[in-house]
Specification:
single chain; about 120 residues; mainly alpha; about 70% helix; extended
């Protein structure tokens, strides 16, 4: 369990959060942490606008979602055939799958843009 450098009166009853049964531990700390987390996510999402790769992936999510399952299974089989395992396998599968999915999304945009909601 994590130890906080806060007074015992603040952390009393704050063992863990179990949202499925509405057990929040110290409710005040739960509210503060949830507000800080929301502000953090809003700040990160404001930075995403500045990166065109994230913007492209966000606009083509439907095509990437439809393609990535086939791409992952195909690339995994090819990598295991070559003899890759562990973290090298995961990194190569991720990179090749993202490149293949984005390339297919680009082709779908050119050939049938209404399939991608355009």
């Amino acid at each position: 369990m994590y130890r906080f450098n806060l007074p015992a009166s603040v952390t009393e009853g704050f063992n863990h959060v179990e949202m499925s049964v509405a057990s929040y531990g110290n409710f005040a700390l739960f509210i503060v942490n949830s507000c800080i987390g929301s502000v953090f996510i809003l700040a990160i999402s404001g930075l995403v606008n500045k990166f065109t790769l994230f913007e492209y992936i966000g606009k083509n999510t439907i095509a990437i979602l439809g393609i990535h399952g086939f791409a992952i299974s195909t690339v995994s089989v090819l990598c295991r055939t070559v003899g890759l395992h562990g973290i090298a396998l995961y990194c190569i599968v991720f990179a090749v799958t993202m490149i293949a999915s984005c390339a297919c999304a680009f082709i779908i945009d050119c050939v049938a843009p209404n399939l991608n909601g355009k």
